[in-house]
Amino acid sequence: MPEVLKINPENPDQSIIMEAIQILREGGVIAYPTETFYGLGADGFNEKAIEKIFFIKGRDIKTPISVIIGEMNDVRGLVREIPEGAAHLMNTFWPGALTLVFTASENVPPLLTASTGKIGIRISSHPVATALAKALRYPITATSANPSGARECTSAQEVIACIGDRIDAVIDGGTTPGGRGSTIVDITAHPPVILREGIIPASVVLNSFESR
Question: HEC profile for the chain?
Fold first, then answer.
């Protein structure tokens, strides 16, 4: 069974965050709450840890894994460029459930991008997710904490029942809102392309881009 780290989701205890960070730095995988569902977290620059994510989910290695970063400036080390209009979407919807797909820089592990050359990035509006990304100082994987094709988890208990024997720890921040995942937008195209409509309506994103 995974270690359970209980935390106040509104005001995360930094000592608990650092316990989780130590697991990530050692190549472990954790589950943590986000503004939608519980996510599976690994160091986005650790290929062995990323491999574990694919194993835990039973995920096709041809499917990219998105990441969460701690602050806006962290984008620059992960992408080749910030296309025209992308900064507007970042400033408008981050922190929040909008994943923007950029052309990945040469620093990003190909396994993370599934060799597509593109990477999905967001800043979470959940205090725990943001605290983890800031403390790790590297992108943290943000795929949902469930087997591929299964229902997403909205509590630590659901995560443990679903994949508890495959992960190192769960940060128990209570129940998350659930509903729909993040909206995913490819901003390497012009105009941007909606890859998945999630909690933020596609029309809101596209209207914002067009009216910038």
Answer: CCEEEECCCCCCCHHHHHHHHHHHHCCCCEEEECCCCEEEECECCCHHHHHHHHHHHCCCCCCCCCEECCCHHHHHHCECCCCCCHHHHHHHHCCCCEEEEEEECCCCCHHHHCCCCEEEEECCCCHHHHHHHHHHCCCEECEECCCCCCCCCCCHHHHHHHHCCCCCEEEECCCCCCCCCCEEEECCCCCCEEEECCCCCHHHHHHHHHCC
